[in-house]
Design brief:
Layout: H1 2-15, E1 18-20, E2 32-36, E3 47-52, E4 56-60, E5 73-74, E6 77-84, E7 92-99, H2 104-112, E8 117-126, E9 129-139, E10 146-155, E11 160-167, H3 170-186, E12 188-189
Antiparallel strand pairs: 1-4, 2-3, 3-12, 4-6, 5-6, 6-7, 7-11, 8-9, 9-10, 10-11
């Protein structure tokens, strides 16, 4: 069911209006190829961060009348940008979600939802701001294994921004981790 849901969600999100978010791209190592979220990029965010080469970012525009709009909302967050790993040879995404001012941990807990298993929260600093990172697992419906997932949420002073690593399985997660770490370590709040 998880794979089925993920496949359906990926297809549905592709149907949501997507436009450029500031990324020329190249190859899937953790070398930066572009900055995501910069002013004038067509995909302005309250943060910027380096994008690994070959990853392609798209601004996500959620039309409330779209029947699939609910897939781009989690807790108080709305998806703002999706960064596709396929051009780099992986199946998955980094996704950037924005939300209003709120407490970090309760907001991240609500964002994860009931399917998140064994969440391990760590208080960190991202871009010089308070943040919380979570490692958790989601049950695979194909073989009942637990697949790893990772996310962080940072307080920008004007609202929250969450960045998620959404991978197909444990192998993809491991291969995509350097791009996630690059985003986390280079993030700057605007």
């Amino acid at each position: 069911m998880k794979i089925l849901f993920r496949t359906a969600a990926l297809a549905a999100l592709a149907a949501v209006t997507l436009t450029g978010c500031d990324s020329p791209s190249a190859k899937a190592d953790a070398r930066p190829a572009a900055r995501v979220g910069a002013a004038g990029s067509g995909g302005e965010l309250p943060v910027t961060f380096d994008l690994a080469t070959a990853w392609k970012s798209k601004k996500v525009v959620v039309e409330q009348s779209d029947p699939l709009a609910g897939l781009a909302k989690r807790g108080l967050f709305t998806m703002a940008c999706e960064i596709d790993a396929k051009p780099a040879g992986n199946l998955g995404f980094l996704r950037v979600w924005t939300g209003g001012p709120a407490e970090l941990k309760p907001s991240l807990t609500a964002f994860l939802g009931a399917d998140a298993q064994q969440p391990a929260f760590t208080e960190i600093q991202v871009g010089g701001r308070p943040a919380i990172e979570v490692d958790y697992q989601v049950k695979s419906e194909l073989d009942d294994s637990l697949d790893p997932e990772k996310a962080f949420v940072v307080d920008t002073g004007k609202g929250l921004v969450a960045v998620t690593l959404d991978s197909l399985d444990a192998d993809e997660h491991q291969e995509m981790l350097p791009a996630y770490e690059l985003a986390r370590t280079t993030l700057e709040v605007l």
